[in-house]
Amino acid sequence: MDQHVIDNSDEARFEVFQGDQLAGFARYHRFGNEIAFIHTEIFPAFEGKGLASVLARTALDQARERGLAVLPYCPFIRRWISKHPDYVDLVPTTHRARFEL
Protein backbone atom coordinates (compact mmCIF):
# COMPACT_ATOMS: atom_id res chain seq x y z
CA MET A 1 0.00 0.00 0.00
CA ASP A 2 1.14 3.55 -0.73
CA GLN A 3 3.07 5.32 2.02
CA HIS A 4 3.68 9.03 1.76
CA VAL A 5 4.57 12.02 3.94
CA ILE A 6 3.35 15.60 3.75
CA ASP A 7 4.39 18.73 5.61
CA ASN A 8 1.19 20.05 7.19
CA SER A 9 2.62 23.45 8.11
CA ASP A 10 -0.76 24.66 9.40
CA GLU A 11 -0.51 22.02 12.14
CA ALA A 12 3.32 22.27 12.40
CA ARG A 13 3.82 18.60 11.75
CA PHE A 14 4.92 16.14 9.12
CA GLU A 15 2.20 13.54 8.58
CA VAL A 16 2.67 10.00 7.29
CA PHE A 17 -0.13 8.24 5.45
CA GLN A 18 -0.76 4.60 4.67
CA GLY A 19 -2.91 4.86 1.58
CA ASP A 20 -5.39 7.63 2.37
CA GLN A 21 -5.30 7.07 6.15
CA LEU A 22 -3.31 9.27 8.50
CA ALA A 23 -0.96 6.89 10.31
CA GLY A 24 1.10 9.25 12.44
CA PHE A 25 3.00 12.50 12.65
CA ALA A 26 6.16 14.29 13.75
CA ARG A 27 5.39 17.61 15.44
CA TYR A 28 7.90 20.42 15.00
CA HIS A 29 8.58 24.04 15.82
CA ARG A 30 10.23 26.27 13.19
CA PHE A 31 12.20 29.37 14.06
CA GLY A 32 14.62 31.11 11.75
CA ASN A 33 16.76 28.55 9.98
CA GLU A 34 16.11 25.83 12.57
CA ILE A 35 13.50 23.11 12.95
CA ALA A 36 13.02 21.50 16.35
CA PHE A 37 11.36 18.09 16.31
CA ILE A 38 9.26 17.81 19.46
CA HIS A 39 7.23 14.59 19.29
CA THR A 40 6.69 11.67 16.92
CA GLU A 41 3.71 9.37 17.11
CA ILE A 42 2.51 6.42 15.03
CA PHE A 43 -1.07 5.39 15.73
CA PRO A 44 -1.42 1.85 17.19
CA ALA A 45 -3.15 0.37 14.13
CA PHE A 46 -0.10 1.30 12.01
CA GLU A 47 2.75 0.31 14.33
CA GLY A 48 5.35 -2.17 13.13
CA LYS A 49 5.09 -1.25 9.44
CA GLY A 50 8.19 0.94 9.22
CA LEU A 51 6.16 4.13 8.93
CA ALA A 52 8.08 5.94 11.67
CA SER A 53 11.29 5.49 9.68
CA VAL A 54 9.61 6.68 6.48
CA LEU A 55 8.38 9.71 8.41
CA ALA A 56 11.78 10.49 9.98
CA ARG A 57 13.73 10.09 6.73
CA THR A 58 11.33 12.26 4.73
CA ALA A 59 11.12 14.99 7.38
CA LEU A 60 14.91 15.12 7.71
CA ASP A 61 15.41 15.05 3.93
CA GLN A 62 13.04 18.02 3.62
CA ALA A 63 14.90 19.85 6.39
CA ARG A 64 18.15 19.28 4.45
CA GLU A 65 16.59 20.50 1.18
CA ARG A 66 15.39 23.66 2.95
CA GLY A 67 18.78 24.30 4.55
CA LEU A 68 17.42 23.95 8.09
CA ALA A 69 19.42 23.00 11.16
CA VAL A 70 17.74 20.17 13.08
CA LEU A 71 17.24 20.12 16.85
CA PRO A 72 16.06 16.58 17.70
CA TYR A 73 14.28 17.03 21.04
CA CYS A 74 12.02 14.12 20.11
CA PRO A 75 13.63 10.89 21.41
CA PHE A 76 12.59 8.91 18.32
CA ILE A 77 14.07 11.41 15.86
CA ARG A 78 17.25 11.62 17.98
CA ARG A 79 17.62 7.80 18.00
CA TRP A 80 16.90 7.62 14.27
CA ILE A 81 19.65 10.16 13.55
CA SER A 82 22.10 8.26 15.79
CA LYS A 83 21.41 5.08 13.77
CA HIS A 84 21.84 6.94 10.45
CA PRO A 85 25.09 8.89 10.82
CA ASP A 86 24.72 10.49 7.38
CA TYR A 87 22.05 12.70 9.00
CA VAL A 88 24.13 13.87 12.00
CA ASP A 89 25.40 16.82 9.95
CA LEU A 90 21.89 18.31 10.13
CA VAL A 91 22.40 18.91 13.86
CA PRO A 92 24.64 21.92 14.48
CA THR A 93 28.00 20.88 15.93
CA THR A 94 27.39 23.18 18.90
CA HIS A 95 24.30 21.10 19.84
CA ARG A 96 25.47 17.55 19.14
CA ALA A 97 26.76 16.86 22.66
CA ARG A 98 23.46 18.10 24.08
CA PHE A 99 21.62 15.49 21.99
CA GLU A 100 24.37 12.86 22.51
CA LEU A 101 25.17 12.75 18.79
Tell me what you see in this structure:
- It comes from Streptacidiphilus fuscans.
- This is N-acetyltransferase.
- One of its GO terms (molecular function) is acyltransferase activity, transferring groups other than amino-acyl groups.
- It is a single chain.
- This protein is of the alpha+beta class and 101 residues long.
- The protein has a single domain, classed as 3-Layer(aba) Sandwich (Aminopeptidase), CATH 3.40.630.30.
- It is built from 3 helices and 5 strands, in the order E-E-E-E-H-E-H-H.
- A 5-stranded mixed beta sheet has the order 1-2-3-4-5.
- Strand 2 and strand 3 form a beta hairpin.
- The longest helix is centred in the middle third of the chain and has 15 residues.
- It is globular, with a radius of gyration of 13 Å.
Measured by DSSP, the beta-strand proportion falls in: 35-45%
Strand order of the largest sheet: 1-2-3-4-5
Number of domain units: 1
**Largest pleated sheet:** 5 strands, mixed
Q: H/E series, N to C?
A: EEEEHEHH
CATH overall fold name: Aminopeptidase
Q: Give the structural class.
A: alpha+beta
Q: Can you name the CATH architecture?
A: 3-Layer(aba) Sandwich
The helical percent reads: 25-40%
User: Unreliable stretches, pLDDT < 50, 5 or more residues?
Assistant: none
Number of helical elements: 3
Number of strands: 5
Q: What name goes with the CATH superfamily?
A: Gcn5-related N-acetyltransferase (GNAT)
Overall spatial form: globular
CATH class: Alpha Beta
The radius of gyration over CA amounts to 13 Å
Q: What is the mean pLDDT? A: 97
Q: Distance between the terminal alpha carbons, to the nearest Å? A: 34 Å
GO molecular function: acyltransferase activity, transferring groups other than amino-acyl groups
Domain N-acetyltransferase: 1-101, 6-92
Protein name: N-acetyltransferase
InterPro entries: Acyl_CoA_acyltransferase (IPR016181), Gcn5-rel_NAT (IPR045057), GNAT_dom (IPR000182), GNAT_YJDJ (IPR031165)
